[in-house]
Amino acid sequence: MAHTPASHRDDALTVEARSDAQPGGWARLRRYLPILRWLPAYRREHLPGDFIAGMVLGVMAVPQSMAYALLANLPPQVGLYATLAPLLVYAVFGTSRTLSIGPVALVSLLTGTMIAQLAPPQSAQAMQLALLAALVVGVAQVALGAMRMGFVVNFLSHPVLSGFTSAAAVVIALSQVKNLFGIELPGSASPLADLGHVIARLPETNWVSLGMGVAAIVVIIFFHRRLGRALVHLGVSEFVAAQVARSGGLVVVLIGTLLTWLLRLDQTAQLRTVGHVPAGLPPFTMPVFDPSSLGAMAPVLVMLVVIGYVESVSIAKSFASRRREKIDADQELIALGMADVAASFTGGSPVSGSFSRSAVNFASGAATQLSSVFAAAVIAVALIFFTPMFYFLPETVLAASIVAAVLNLPDFETARQAWRYSKADLLTLVITLVGVLFVGVESGLLIGVASSLAVHLWVTSRPHVTIIGRVEDTETYKSVKRHKVKTCPHVTALRIDESLYFATAKVLEDTLIGVAVDNPALKYIVLDCSAVNRIDLSALTTLETVDNELRTMGVTLVLSAVKGPIHDSLLRAGFVARFGQDRIYLSTHEAMKALECT
Amino acid sequence: MAHTPASHRDDALTVEARSDAQPGGWARLRRYLPILRWLPAYRREHLPGDFIAGMVLGVMAVPQSMAYALLANLPPQVGLYATLAPLLVYAVFGTSRTLSIGPVALVSLLTGTMIAQLAPPQSAQAMQLALLAALVVGVAQVALGAMRMGFVVNFLSHPVLSGFTSAAAVVIALSQVKNLFGIELPGSASPLADLGHVIARLPETNWVSLGMGVAAIVVIIFFHRRLGRALVHLGVSEFVAAQVARSGGLVVVLIGTLLTWLLRLDQTAQLRTVGHVPAGLPPFTMPVFDPSSLGAMAPVLVMLVVIGYVESVSIAKSFASRRREKIDADQELIALGMADVAASFTGGSPVSGSFSRSAVNFASGAATQLSSVFAAAVIAVALIFFTPMFYFLPETVLAASIVAAVLNLPDFETARQAWRYSKADLLTLVITLVGVLFVGVESGLLIGVASSLAVHLWVTSRPHVTIIGRVEDTETYKSVKRHKVKTCPHVTALRIDESLYFATAKVLEDTLIGVAVDNPALKYIVLDCSAVNRIDLSALTTLETVDNELRTMGVTLVLSAVKGPIHDSLLRAGFVARFGQDRIYLSTHEAMKALECT
Predict the structure, then answer these.
(1) Are residues B425 and B494 in the same domain?
(2) I want to staple A66 with a disulfide (CB 3.0 to 4.6 A). Which of A76, A292, A503, B399 is the partner?
(3) What CA–CA distance (Å, rounded) separates B436 from B447?
(4) Are the beta carbons of B474 and A536 separated by less than 8 Å?
């Protein structure tokens, strides 16, 4: 019965304290600039792996980043610009050794949605909006990271993320249908509206575009799913086979460009190509502040901050855990934010970690972020020397590579688990999915997050309450319905499986009064508080009211297993003095012993 | 270790089941028409009490309801109409024997806010809006009651209600300043803007109006706070003294009206009076549906549904508990809804339970709802015979009675308790208060509710985690920081004081990995789940990931005291099979015994 008053904080494990430790001077610099940790300790044996991985990553990133620029309603070179500087900046600030930063599907989709509402696609104005978005998102992420607010992403539940990703894959694929069919639309509206327009204009289909696009999708999938395994069967090494399997995107780009150039398909078949891409390194750009656009952009910006980070940090974590490396979630926010800021000053657009490119980087043997530096060099070379080659790169091929990439996104496994494990989780998944598909990418995600919070509150507001009794000769008390337990007529021991807060206060009242009314012989109610993690003011008020009501009914309320921190608060509020310390027991067993019911 | 699979529902106390019981036929009719319970059993000895209480209640309700009509930007007779039929209807459907229904301060304030945005005050259009509001609110309440959705009000926490009530008192008092000063404003904007206009026009003050208003406030307060006690000291009976103490409002109405009539103050001093009030019983009115207004009214309507009900049912409960009577929360929704519907068809406005009038009814000896029927008769008599007397009733006197009434509303006690007990609760109280005062009555309440939910989620997302050990020779395990307990180096027992859901999944991961990293000698972690009331899919995924990570670190994770319903879900999802039933123990003591740490 001895509750030693001690502060909540003292008692808490130092999980937060540990990450809150503020190292000084050089240590602090090393904390914020992880490159100071890995570069001085760089071992020569890592160089070949980093070099090969960097080359492969760079070659893969060139067409992919142009494709995602297209998805973001931006000119193709913006994708390249958004890859170069961010790769270098992340190498300095990032804590992951293999994460590859740049334009990715979800972030480009969000950027594209925002641009479609405010500017003509691929216009100078669209580019300005992208710069501004990258700056604001980057600054916000750096600020959140510096304030150690990385935890806010904890509020994005697994089912919400799963529903969002699956629906986004569908939205992204739909958005590329017009490019595959080679149909020019007046302006980009919602993906579903776009699809409607495409269907209405099906007779205008460019069959060369469609044929080349479908062929490209088939080739990429064939490379990815079959060719690698076939080569291994034929005796090719696993490493080479994996590189080949991932090169489908590059192969279709080369073949598509070659075919278009040789047959002049851009003129003979009106095939839309990437066209003129300015040669040279990324320009220095100044984002222009425009308060009226910023207001309209706000919801998407919030989402870019959160989704970009969640995607990036999850990918970083998943690869780090395979090599037992550690990711610092707050430093990752800073690193991603700096990469976004870098993109905004070099003609880019918002970025995030790319799963496919990080996987290639990892599989190709990258040991440190030096591979990103090599990849950046590849992109620089492409920008300086190879932009004329992009002239004949067909847009349908880029669309095909986007479609092939997002085919892996839909997540049926989480839905299946939710179906079996928890219908509440399934509900939030479905709400998010339907919201993103039919209401909109940003609103859908917000609806999903709100629904996951609402479902959690709803579940906690209807707590499980059970009468408990002693299990055999132990001091363990369990549900009378589930276990063979001892009880007595003059005492009812109750366990409420939820914190006592405003939403559960009424259940508490109804339960205690109900038990007293239903058992006229009852003298004592023992309320087992082992599952009560919080008692808020509403519940405390209810508890005092109910205690008075029970008293007039001749029933004495007794509390057991009250947690230390809660006991401290009750003490501070004077509740313990009013209620009586002698009615608060350390354990249910002690209470039952005292009430002669053991 | 034997977890008998049993459904969650089986195990639950039948709190919900009890109120879900559906009686058939006559019993069901008696359930929905409580008058069938009390009227056939009416005892003659109750008649004098009911009669006197009804007379007192009726006489008090006449000026009060006109004052609240003024607050609601409606003509005075609407207040009388909104009292008559609702009193009768509540007598049929209500489960409280003493609750008095009609126009009240908060509901009239909300109605007035809504009308101010959509129609000129006291206009025919304003009356139409009030009818429509009463109908929609009433139908919604009846529907919610029939669906047993009374529990939704559980989400209005005590601090939010307290902050709302205090702020609303200020808003109501401010709204009456112009009437006290006798200043005519162009149109009603926000209360603060109104106050600004009044200050700007202070030179136009009608000193007769101000003098009479202030005098009326002083008289009412004197009657209420001093006269009663003084009379008791002089030997007058408690009952009579209490009646006199509450008659201040009536006295100032009579004196004010008399003075105005005798001195023709309406002409000699331009004193604004109630003016012409149509004689006769309430008219039959048809609310007109107007979709465009309904859209603009929607937020206020939601609030009227909720606030009207919360106020009504709390008052009903507080008086019922003094006499050990029972209030059925769902039937109360139906009764209040029917009263609102009745108001909408008889020229009224939205209603709720009145604390002051219910208190008078209770104190004057009402034993059943028959007193409400007598009170309704008094109002009918007033409407038929006495409306010409209201012509000279000064508005400043009605304003004074509103101000005097709301002076009791501000709730400092809850703020003081919150300050001592829980800063989180204090925060939501202050947010609600500031929101209502500076953002608006409806938005402020919404902000308050949202903040209380956010605070709760925030608190639960940062759970208390502690290492536990065995207390002496008991089977109780408590925090190592707070109690003298036994521990061993190869086992760490941890208790996490929160459900495992998406917002706490990361804490779970960080804690378990952190403990393993910090203790190289560690072989086992026992996770005491006695405070875990829910494991959602996000947390389950994290648990499996962490278990794999711990395994590769040579640490075995063991669960103890998993609650029955959660164990069932884990079993269903296949987690128990994958994790191993032999790693799940009935209690922490059993786990520690098995791991040889006791």
Answers:
(1) no
(2) A76
(3) 9
(4) no
In angstroms, the CA A98 to CA B57 distance is: 78
Q: Is residue A4 part of a domain?
A: no
Helix axes A124-146, A329-345, angle to 10 degrees: 150
Q: Which positions ≥6 away from B139 have C-beta within 8 Å?
A: B337, B341
List the structure tokens of B292.
């465009």
At A4 the pLDDT is: 43
Domain that holds residue B264: 46-452
B24 lies in a domain?
no
The alpha carbon dihedral of A513, A514, A515, A520 has a sign of positive
Query: Which of chain A's residues have a Cβ under 8 Å away from the Cβ of B15?
Result: 465, 507, 510-511, 514
In-domain check, residue B35: no
On whether both B209 and B111 belong to a single domain, the answer is yes
Distance from CA of A465 to the nearest CA of B (A): 5
ipTM over 0.85: no
Question: Which residue reads 């309406």 in tokens?
Answer: B266
pLDDT band at residue B381 using 50, 70 and 90 as cut-offs: very high
- B18, A514 contact by CB (below 8 A): yes
Best-predicted range by mean pLDDT among A313-322, A436-445, B259-268, B434-443? B259-268
Query: Are residues B69 and B207 both part of a single domain?
Result: yes
Q: Is the residue at B289 inside a domain? A: yes
C-beta atoms of B537 and A494 within 8 A: no
Q: Which of B158, B313, B423, B551 to mutate to test the interface with A (most CBs of A within 10 A)?
A: B158
Looking at the fold, whether B387 and B417 belong to one and the same domain comes out as yes
The set of residues, in sequence order, having a beta carbon less than 8 Å from that of A559 and lying 6+ positions away, is A526, A527, A529, A579, A583, A584, A585
Largest CA distance in chain A: 97
Q: What is the mean pLDDT of residues B439-465?
A: 87
**What is the pLDDT averaged over residues B359-370?**
87
Question: Which residues on neighbouring strands pair with residue B493, listed in sequence order?
Answer: B468, B526
- Cβ A315 vs Cβ A303: under 8 Å: no
Residue of B nearest to A477 (CA): B587
CA pseudo-torsion sign A43, A48, A53, A58: positive
Best of A421, A452, A467, A507 to substitute, by most chain B Cβ atoms within 10 angstroms, is: A421
Q: What is the mean pLDDT of residues B182-203?
A: 76
pLDDT of residue A579: 93
Q: Are residues B513 and B544 in the same domain?
A: yes
Summarize the confidence of residues B327-346 as an average pLDDT: 94
CATH code of the domain in which A580 resides? 3.30.750.24
- The one-letter amino acid code at A509 reads E
Lowest mean pLDDT among A207-216, B182-191, B331-340: B182-191
pLDDT value at B21 more than 70: no
Long-range contacts (CB closer than 8 Å, 24 or more residues apart) made by B385-388: B385/B279, B387/B77, B387/B277, B387/B278, B387/B279, B388/B279
How many domains does chain A divide into?
2
Same domain flag for B129 and B197: yes
Interface touch B504/A424, C-beta < 8 Å: no
Q: What is the pTM of this model?
A: 0.77
Contacts of B472 in chain A (CB under 8 A): none
**Statement: residue B321 has pLDDT above 70:** no
pLDDT value of residue A15: 39
Residue B16's pLDDT band, with cuts at 50, 70 and 90, is very low
Q: What is the mean pLDDT of residues B434-441?
A: 85
In 3D space, the residue among A363, A310, A303, A302 whose CA is nearest the CA of residue A332 turns out to be A310
The band of A259, judged by pLDDT with boundaries at 50, 70 and 90, is very high
Distance CA B186, CA B177 (A): 15
Could you tell me if A555 and A580 lie in one domain? yes
Nearest to B474 by CA among A13, A498, A484, A561: A561
B6 confidence band (pLDDT: 50, 70, 90): very low
Clarify whether residues A373 and A351 are in a common domain. yes
